[in-house]
Amino acid sequence: MMVCGTVARRWIGLLAAAIVLPVAMGGLSSCSSAAKNDTFDLSASPKSETFASARNRQLLVADPSALKAVDSEQVLVRVSRSEIRYLSNAQWSDKLSRMVQSKLVEAFENTGKLGGVGTPGQGLAIDYQLITDIRAFEIDASGSDRAVVEISAKLLNDRNGTVKAQRAFSASVPTGGSTNDVYIRAMDRAFGQVTTEIIDWTLTQL
Length: 206
Fold this sequence. Notes:
Pfam families: ABC_trans_aux. This is ABC transporter. InterPro entries: ABC_trans_aux. It contains 3 helices and 10 strands, in the order H-E-E-E-E-E-E-H-E-E-E-E-H. By secondary structure, it is an alpha/beta fold. The chain folds into 2 domains: 1-36; 38-205, 3-Layer(aba) Sandwich (Rossmann fold). The strands form 2 sheets. Strands 2, 3, 4, 5, 7, 8, 9 and 10 form an 8-stranded mixed sheet that branches. Strands 1-6 form a two-stranded parallel ribbon. Strand 8 (128-140) and strand 9 (146-157) form a beta hairpin. The longest helix is centred in the first third of the chain and has 33 residues, at 2-34. The protein is elongated and about 45 Å long. The protein starts with a helix and ends with a helix.
């Protein structure tokens, strides 16, 4: 009886291994396919084109808002007015809103025209807040392929809570091709145009 019990336990162990092994292999397969995605970043190369300066002002760049479909690590492609998809084998290096916020701060810092600029939690003595909403950040494939970026901005006086100014900024850039690299470069150019306009507008308002 003891021998039979031992044999039974061995069979149960082999069956368990047979069940677990495909699951483990499936998990490895999923990880492997996810790792094939090319990861892309945005540049912060745009520079201010205005002579306006606000070296006596400190600016907080608030966390941008965006719809859930836009605000992810996936690259959005608009197939029609009501249908969206995501670019295959491609992803952003971080959640889109965090990337936009980081690049805006970097671009403002590069101008050297502010007394200080930062994000929430950095302990700035804030004069103004730049509040942004990412309305579009996509490849529009409903006609000729174009990179479309639209960001609305509000400049909030942090001393009294009033909105000093608000404006929507947008750019549309032809992709000139249909590969992932080409799409991302076009989106980067569109974002660069919008960033430059936001910087110049903000410095003029301050």
